[in-house]
Amino acid sequence: MNSNSTPQDDTIDLKELFFSLLSQWKLIALCTLLSLVFALLYLKVTPNVYSTDAMIQVEDAKGAGAAALLGDLGSALPGGVGGKSVADAEIEILNSRKVLGQTIQDLKLDIRITDEQSSLTYRLLNPVQSKVIYKNNVVTWQDKKNVFVIQSFDVPNFYLDKKLTLNFINGQEFSLSYKKDVVFKGKLNAINQSLDQKGLWKIQIYAKNPISHDFSVTKLSMPSAVQWIKKDYSVAERGKNSGVIGLNYNGEDKEHITQVLNHILNIYQAQNIERKSLESAQTLSFLEKQLPELKQQLEDSEIKFNRFREQYNTIDVTQEAELMLKQNVELEKLKIQLQQQQAELSSKYTPDHPLMSAINAQLSEINKKTSEMTQSIKRLPETQRLYLQLYRDVKVNTELYTALLNSYQQLKIAKAGEIGNVRIIDTAIEPVKPIKPKKLITLVLAIFVGGFLGTLLALLRNMLRSGIKDSNQIENELDLPVYATVPRSPVQESRIKILKKKKNIPILAVKNSDDIAIESLRSMRTAIHFALSSAKNNIIMISGPAPELGKSFISTNLATILAQSDKRVLLIDADLRRGYMHKYFNYDVQPGLAEYLNGQHELGSIVRSTEVENLSVISRGKSPANPSELLSTQKFAEMLTHLSSQFDHILIDTPPVLAVTDGIIISQYAGVNLVVARYAKTQMKELELTVNRFEQAGVKVNGFILNDIQRAGAGYGYGYNYSYAYKANKDD
């Protein structure tokens, strides 16, 4: 053995890696196929989910009452709270229990039914699935054969959000159980009402045919039911400050989700109109109360003003006083309008609301200016001051009364056509295609994931394969020649497959003489000739460190090649435990070497000719109890000496060296000892131990044969273990 071995090359051959993966295409294809199967099973058990949508527009306008009272006054105020979109408040309303809760009550969406037998296996085996239908204020469960209807399901608060097991009894009664305890019994097709310690029960269930299996029925509380809907329900504004709101609802039943979303739209619109009508009604009530008072104030102020004019005739009012009068009138008008707006908004907002705060700030400013104006008027001459006060009262009352009367008439007209500030642009329509699962995408991803995992496993197997892949590695580390590198035959079936079929194994050198493996073995003849020229005899022993290396394949085909070159060749199957050399020549295992060594047969009866000219064979015979002892006898040595003179070449196929001692015993009688290693399977450590075994017995290993060479990685994932199981086969 060479102590100065070359360092191992750690570089990666990309070409070899590619062909290594290519050679493991079956593994990659299997992983891809399994991934595809799992994807198909997933698509089978996963129900289709559909989505429907709707769209509404929220107009940035005040109610009819506010518009009639305020006119353009509100334009001076910030539009919305903190500049937010007008749709923000409506989105919150659409998500509120007031809207969703009404929908839940109307459609009985707070009743959830689950089929107890609807397991994963059941969904795989049954293409037609059961479904729950929420329609006509009842909840219906149905499958291909059975159906039952829940018209009412009122339970005590204690059992809200708890699963109750529904069991049908004899097609006439039913029971509800909680934690395996029956909590309620009733009759089918009838109203069942009772009062117990937990509270009131009122349940109506209708079923025509008996139902054999159980169901889980849950009555959801209102908060839970709202949260349940919100899982598949979404509301969002389309665009920034657009006032357009989009609604989406997802579910497995196309008809159901369309019904639910349209019901939400109808309830929301009705509540919006009701809210706006209530605002208008409050404003009208306010105006109906204010108009008579203003009319009376106007009449009183006119009477006082006329009396003043009769007493003092015409009063010369200065230009300054006239301006003060006009400003005072405008302030009073604005004050009244703000007070009316404050009264109208107080029904919707708290005093801390930013809109209310803005109005209060404007009122404070107007009161301040009014107070200043009053002080200025007091400084005028008394006659002018009285004139201005009376004239102001008449002027203010006249304009306010006229304005409020016009507003009242406009409001009456507006109320008659009140439609709210919400317009439904798109109603929900029944979807056609599901949104998930995405079948095509799922299948494509499954193929990619399967291929990736297969490639990963192939790379992992390649990494775990630390076997010999290069003949130079053997020659450099062991300082022994490699006589031949035998490629894998593209036509040779595996021995295991052939033996499972209980067929004879064909000799490749006879069946396909031009095979690449046979051509490689032919190249050995010259090397064997030179090896035998310096050997003590013409006996060639072919061994190996472990089972399943191809020793018998090499021995049989090499013997055939030598016989085809006009040499008398004898092939001996010395593997008395598991040898199968007779399978190549369509012979029975007996009589063979074991029978001769046991003295049961003569030598001439065990040497049998074959269909290959110049080739004879000795089979192993019946597996003995003591093969090593038989091979150690003098009779075996004398047999080899006698046969060596009758044949040009004797090839002996032996058991694995690291498994049993038979090969070491036979090697002492052979002139040439060859060791077979298998590409990507045999470890270098195995070859080192094999050479050491021969050296301990005083036998020299002449060289190696590297078998089963492949263009790239073979895909074998063998680790090595020297505790080989190598027991004798049962009698053939």
Cα radius of gyration in angstroms: 52 Å
Which sheet architecture does the biggest sheet show? 8 strands, mixed
| Number of discrete domains | 4
Instruction: Determine the N-to-C terminus distance.
Output: 42 Å
Mean residue pLDDT = 81
How many DSSP-defined strands? 22
For this entry, give a set of tags.
single chain, 732 residues, alpha/beta, 4 domains, 25 helices, 22 strands, 47% helix, 18% strand
Task: Please provide a written account of the structure.
This protein is α/β, with parallel strands linked by helices and 732 residues long. The chain folds into four domains: 14-46 and 437-463, no CATH class; 49-107 and 238-435, no CATH class; 111-219, no CATH class; 480-709, 3-Layer(aba) Sandwich (Rossmann fold). The strands form four sheets. It has an eight-stranded mixed beta sheet, with helices on both faces. Mean pLDDT is 81; it is low at 1-8, 63-82 and 712-725.
Summarize the structure.
The protein contains 25 helices and 22 strands.
Give the topology, please.
Layout: H1 14-23, H2 25-45, E1 50-58, H3 64-70, H4 87-94, H5 97-107, E2 111-115, H6 120-125, E3 131-135, E4 138-142, E5 147-154, E6 163-169, E7 173-178, E8 181-187, E9 190-195, E10 200-207, E11 215-219, H7 222-230, E12 233-237, E13 244-251, H8 254-312, H9 319-345, H10 354-378, H11 382-416, E14 422-426, H12 439-464, H13 471-478, E15 482-487, H14 495-500, H15 508-511, H16 516-522, H17 524-533, E16 539-543, H18 551-564, E17 569-573, H19 582-585, H20 593-597, H21 603-606, E18 608-609, E19 615-618, H22 627-631, H23 634-644, E20 649-653, H24 662-667, E21 672-678, H25 684-696, E22 703-709
Parallel strand pairs: 15-22, 16-20, 16-21, 17-19, 17-20, 21-22
Antiparallel strand pairs: 1-13, 1-14, 2-11, 3-4, 4-5, 5-10, 6-7, 6-11, 7-8, 9-10, 12-13, 18-19
